[in-house]
Every structure is written in structure tokens, then in C-alpha cells.
Amino acid sequence: MAKRGKKYQKVAELFDHDMEYTIEEACDLIKQTKTANFDESVDLDLRLGVDPRHADQMVRGTVSLPHGTGKSVRVLALVNEAKQEEAKEAGADFVGLDEYIEKIEEGWADIDVIIATPDVMGKIGKLGRHLGPRGLMPNPKSGTVTMDVADAVKEFKQGKIDFRVDKQGILHTSIGKASFDVNEIRENLISFLQTILKLRPASAKGIYIRSAYISTTMGPSISLSRSSITSI
Question: I need a surface site. Which of 53, 123, 169, 171 has the fewest CB within 10 A?
């Protein structure tokens, strides 16, 4: 294992790594574990008691964090001419259709979210092999295939995030920035966890949230107690 830097070792001594902490305690600690010279993300990692190989145990959805993610989100609106002005006025960074389909086929990927209207999905379907592995393929379940283009663009620009559990039952997401105050981090964390709890598949047996860790990009992970999560 690579030796950790002095800054990391110093903040790692602030808490007991064998202990689980309440949401309040963890959010207080996370503000003290920043080690980098940039504004680190605050990341959440959940291990869920689901088997995503079964469609009825796939945990996927969206959530609008109360205080956003602190990140600048680049939105592409793949829409016909009738919807293009609406998308531009709502704040989409890139707007168009055929020219962007061609760019994506050529390898362009300088985007975080793609929003499309249902009537263009026939054209976009062929982009699955390019967008699917990066989690960028528009999908009605994630709110990225809609006729309400303006609302969708605004929501994602303001901090709405799309999440999906991976093949191992792990869910990783960013819930803010280290520069956020403690209450902003706590409220974003609670909002995300509440969404995950509501999405528990009926077919998932046993413990649903098996483990939960919060950390800054370069800092040590802090374990959240399950009792603290299930009581929110």
C-alpha cells in the first residue's frame, strides 16, 4: 500500500477508523479532513444489499440536492429546431441534433448530462455504445427524456443528479464541496439518503444499506452508522 502524505496522516488521526459515526458527527468531521489545495468534492459511497443483475433490484433515480453539487454541469440538449430556443434560454451549454450526434460518434464527450425529447430518440438510439458506458444515455427514468426541456435543463444545471448502482451493488456519488458549510453538507447528505431509502426494491431481502462512507476527494473515509441513516 502506498504511503500516505503527512497531511492525510494528520487528518486521519482526527477520528477512530473502527467506529461508525452519526450523520451529524460525520459532517462535522468531514470539514476537518480536507487535505488538498483545491475545493475537494464530498463523496458518498454506499454498499447496498441488492443484486443489480435482477431488473427488480436495480436502484436508479434522480435527486435535486437542496444546495446543489457545487459543480458546473455541462448540459447538451439534443432536440429538434422547435425546442432549441427553449433549451438555450434555459441555460443548456450545447443545443442541436444532427451535428452533435455526429460529434459524439467521432468521440466527443465534453458534457455531463444529455437531455432529449422523445421524438428524437430514434436518432439517438445508435449512440448507445458511445454514451451507455459513460452513463450519458438519455432515459425517461432519469428525467433526461422529456418534452419539458426547459425545466429539465434548469434542474440539472441547479444540482439535480442522476445515480445508478453498479454491478457490485455499490453506489458512488458526490453530494457537495468541502467549501460548503456543515449544514449544507448535512442537508444534501440526508436528502440523498432519504431518496435511496425510498427506492428500496421490494424484492431486496436482509440489510438494505450494508455500509456507508463519506469522504473528501483526497481525505480518509468516515463510516456512517446504519442506525443514523435509517432514523432520518
Answer: 53
pLDDT digits (tens, 9 = 90+) for 63-106: 999 999 998 899 999 999 999 999 999 999 999 999 999 999 99
Give the structural domain span for 26: 16-69+160-231
- Domain-located, residue 1: no
Whose cell is 441547479? That residue is: 158
Instruction: Identify whether residues 144 and 169 lie together within a single domain.
Output: no
- CA neighbours closer than 13 Å in the CB half-sphere of residue 44: 27
My answer on whether 170 and 59 are in the same domain is yes
Cross-strand partners of 162: 62
- Cβ 71 vs Cβ 174: under 8 Å: yes
Q: How open is the CA angle 174-218-39, to the nearest 5 degrees?
A: 65
Amino acid at 28: D
Under 8 Å between Cβ of 214 and 225? no
Quote the pLDDT of residue 1: 41
Do 59 and 164 lie in one domain? The reply is yes
Distance CA 24, CA 15 (A): 14
Alpha-carbon distance of 135 to 163, in angstroms, equals 9
Q: Residue 44 carries which side chain, given as an amino acid letter? A: L
Q: How many domains does the chain have?
A: 2
Chosen domain end from 130, 157, 184 = 157
Query: What value, to the nearest 5°, has the Cα angle with vertex 71 and ends 142 and 219?
Result: 105
